[in-house]
Amino acid sequence: MTNWTLKKDPRTAVAGPVVVCVMDGVGIGQHDDGDAVHLARKPWLTMLSKQSAVTQLAAHGTHVGMPSDEDMGNSEVGHNALGAGRTFDQGAKLVEQAIASGALFAGEAWRELVERCVSQGTTLHFIGLLSDGNVHSHIDHLIALLRGASQAGVKRVRVHPLLDGRDVAETSALQYVEALERALSELRSADRDYMIASGGGRMTTTMDRYNADWRIVERGWHAHVLGTARPFKSTREAVETFRAEKPGVIDQDLPSFTIVDGAGKPVGPIVDGDAVVLFNFRGDRALELSQAFEQKDFTHFDRVRYPAVAFAGMMQYDGDTLTPKAFLVAPPQIDATLGEYIANNGLRQLAISETQKYGHVTYFWNGNKSGMFDPALERYIEVPSDRVSFDERPWMKAAEITDQVMSELRTGGYHHARLNFANGDMVGHTGKLESTVIAVETVDICLGRLLPVIAELKGALIVTADHGNADQMFELDKKSKKAQVDEKGRPRAKTSHTLNPVPFYIYAPTLPALRIDATVKNPRLANVAATTLQLMGLVPPSDFEPGLIAR
Fold it and tell me: pLDDT at position 488, please?
């Protein structure tokens, strides 16, 4: 049983609130022409970098629970580590292990799905992100599931791929489509009817999050379930047509499509008796589609037709609401987080971001739990995000977040606050360098407004990031580390996260002698939680990664 009471240690305590600011997607790059962080005018971050309490944190790979150090970090695992104070094996690694050991195929959820399709002669559908980005999904997981379905005797399979171009190269969709088509071709036989049925770009189709724009899920429903999206004879035809109609469009923004046969009929709408697997392992962009399949009293859009299907997620995406009810791999069990300790010690805390990252400072920070630990002691604020391409408004809602944080802190009612500026990540994902520079400058301006409030309240501000993105806006050659160029000699835009470390600054004007503890080797995101408690004058739990403040 957890002992929630934390002992006091005033040696590194500040009198005011301890605020953690996550500059989403702002890593430490190689200071070249594609590094938007380097190119940005950022006087306040430059000032912070000259403080004594400065270091950098690992935010990728095994440091955040991913399978290998070749795997980039992401906002989900980054906020899990920031809030948990420990590093847990994450979805990508857990799924990989479950497939390799055979545990996934021996599990009750998988067996029920395939037995339903085999016994009733119905279709098994797979919906999810088609790439090897390993942030929401991995194509290898999908291919393993397809092979497992064939071995189990499932005769009819339909795949509904969502095209990436966000966690991988921006126009790489067809290489993954071709790999999927090869796998399907290998499995097809006289009694195995396996093919692609529908799809679309991830930012237009199915993968909305935090209730930001249910129209995205509705488009996916029309493509996957109803089979009424724009018809094409193949995925390649759809992608090439969309690109020709809108030159410069990247994969994540491609419209929805439905594959039809020679008579113009959809080849794989989802109907009564079928089974559906959402093979994404990450929860934020999987929850809404799960709700559309599982909730009878559903009001977010007109489903037109609600088929009676067996539905399962790759993982359970929300442990509080038990969504979905059936899942193939158990998610990481993250307990006793920073937020839970703070609540159980009777201290008040604030969490705030705009819609795009609201769930990260709440759900993911709290160990994949959507509720509060103690509503009397917690306040969560969501600032609604714009519904436009983020390169068009790179300032996003940073100013509004800052306004609210300053107002809330000045009430004197909080011991801890956490906020996320989404700009560096969301604008970075568009691949637009100039807009991303503005995004970083916006965050810097907001920090400049927040710092005087921290000084006024005699508090402390930790500034860090959850992973890199804006720090590398061009695809780099692995050997030369120089930008790759296209056929016209232009640098190839990079829209995915990076493997770079992230900055870590502590601003605590009442503690001018504060230093980073040099004995903590290879610090990473999980060290932030204990550091936060140190500044609050509390002794961190013994199983937390150590705090970074020298005593």
Answer: 86
- Do 415 and 18 form a contact (C-beta atoms < 8 A)? yes
pLDDT the model gives residue 319: 80
Rounded distance between C-alpha atoms, residue 184 and residue 316, angstroms:
27
Give pLDDT tens digits for 48-72.
Answer: 999 889 999 999 999 999 999 999 9
User: By CB neighbour count within 10 A (0-12 exposed, 13-18 middle, 19+ buried), where does 32 fall?
Assistant: middle
Q: Can you tell me the distance from the alpha carbon of 38 to that of 439, in angstroms, rounded to the nearest whole number?
A: 12
Catalytic member of 52, 75, 172, 389: 75
> Identity (one letter) of the amino acid at 470?
A
Fold equal for 11-89+334-535 and 92-329: no
Contact 32/507 with Cβ under 8 angstroms?
A: no
What are the residue ranges in the chain where pLDDT is below 70? none
**What are 121's strand-pairing partners?**
none
DSSP string, 73-96: P-HHHHHHHHHHSS----HHHHHH
What's the CATH class of domain 92-329? alpha beta
Q: Give, rounded to a whole angstrom, the gap between the first and last alpha carbons of the chain.
A: 30
Residue with tokens 């499932």: 154
Is 234 one of the annotated active-site residues of the chain?
A: no
What single string gives the DSSP state of each residue in 471-536? T--B-B-TTT-PBPB-TTSPBPB--S-BS--EEEEEE-TT-TT--B-TTS-S-BTTHHHHHHHHHT
Q: Among all chains, which residue has been given the structure tokens 């937020």? A: 339
Question: Cα(418)–Cα(251) distance, rounded to whole angstroms?
Answer: 33
The arrangement of strands across the sheet holding 54-57 comes to 54-57, 502-507, 460-464, 18-23, 416-421, 349-354, 378-383
Q: Give pLDDT tens digits for 144-175.
A: 999 999 999 999 999 999 999 999 999 999 99
Q: Please name the residues in contact with 543: beta carbons below 8 A apart, sequence gap of 6 or more.
A: 85, 86, 336
Q: What angle do CA 115, 119, 122 make, to 5 degrees?
A: 90
Neighbours of 452 (CB within 10 A): 11
Domain boundaries, the chain: 11-89+334-535, 92-329
Q: Are 122 and 116 in contact (CB under 8 A)?
A: yes
Retrieve residue 2's tokens.
Answer: 């957890």
What does CATH list as the number for 11-89+334-535?
A: 3.40.720.10
Task: Look at strands 349-354 and 416-421 and give their pairing.
Answer: parallel
